[in-house]
Specification:
Radius of gyration: 20 Å
Shape: globular
Strand content: 25-35%
Distance between the termini: 57 Å
Order of helices and strands: HHHEHEEEEEEEEEEEEHH
Number of helices: 6
Length: about 290
């Protein structure tokens, strides 16, 4: 029996070797028992090829007029190599598409990764507490999007991207359990737990429907249990204490509900209700 060219493709073998090394490292360091101590990279946008592994999209794909670009920016002086997510939001409706009633969004996400010898390529971020990002924001209300191998393929877990220092590089940290499950912009109830063992894609979107330009720089995204001393030192970050975290989590989740409600008020959410399956409906909240 001879392997097919598809199995011998560099991408397939490369992904398989990477997954084998990851599993071997876990076994050698006993991370399965003690928990991981280092960061788990999800996407590092420091090369043009890495940027090509991401997919930008906007309402222009369905007849709208928003523009979106995800461009690689080489390192220059103090600026690290990174990706530039930019474009212009438009809420103009296409005149020849009466079925299109809402526009005004742009986003990007990592592309689905190909298979390996161990099966489908999915991220297992269950051993980690946080999603961390190195970004430079223009201050607009971006959302971080996480897609898992869910029963409902269109479910997305979302969280506001809070930039503490717009126009400057900073590290943003979000607790995984603070993400809110949505479907086409509508918060889905009951929420349930994110399938953190089977994460397909991560990305960032802008759905505030405020016309005008946007510009967000992203260097990397990773799962972690703690920031490195360098990350903590770079902007004088002070993490919330254990007593403060429950209150902070409640405030963050409530804020996302408010943001989605405001987005719906502007008309960016779907008109139909979200269903769990074709045979059984679950209640949805209408922000």
């Amino acid at each position: 029996m001879r392997p097919t060219p598809h199995l011998l493709a560099r991408g397939f073998l490369g992904r398989s070797v990477e997954e084998f090394m990851r599993r071997s490292r876990i076994a050698i360091t006993f991370e399965a028992l003690s928990g991981p101590t280092g960061p788990f990279p999800l996407i590092t946008l420091d090369t043009a090829d890495a940027t090509q592994d991401c997919k930008p999209f906007s309402d222009a794909d369905t007849g709208g007029f928003s523009t979106v670009h995800l461009d690689f920016v080489p390192a220059a002086g103090p600026e690290p190599a990174h990706a530039r997510f930019h474009g212009r939001i438009s809420t103009e409706l296409p005149r020849d598409r009466p079925e299109i009633q809402r526009t005004g969004y742009a986003a990007w996400r990592t592309r689905d990764r190909g298979p390996t010898l161990f099966g489908r390529s999915l991220w297992d971020i269950d051993p980690y507490l946080y999603l961390a990002m190195r970004i430079k924001s223009d201050g607009r209300k971006y959302l971080v999007n996480v897609q898992t191998e869910s029963v409902i393929a269109t479910d997305i877990h979302q969280h506001r991207l809070y930039a503490r220092r717009p126009t400057e590089w900073e590290t943003v940290v979000i607790q995984w359990h603070d993400f809110v499950r949505t479907n086409h912009g509508t918060v889905v109830e009951p929420q349930g737990e994110m399938l953190r063992q089977r994460v397909r894609t991560v990305g960032i979107g802008l759905t505030d429907r405020i016309p005008g330009p946007f510009d967000l720089r992203i260097q990397r995204m990773w799962a972690t249990n703690a920031l490195s001393p360098e990350d903590l030192r770079e902007d004088g970050r002070v993490e919330p204490t254990a007593d403060e975290r429950p209150h902070a989590a409640a405030s963050v989740s409530s804020s996302l509900y408010d943001d989605l409600r405001e987005s719906r008020r502007r008309g960016s959410g779907p008109a139909r209700k979200t269903t769990e399956s074709s045979s059984a409906k679950r209640p949805t909240s209408s922000p």
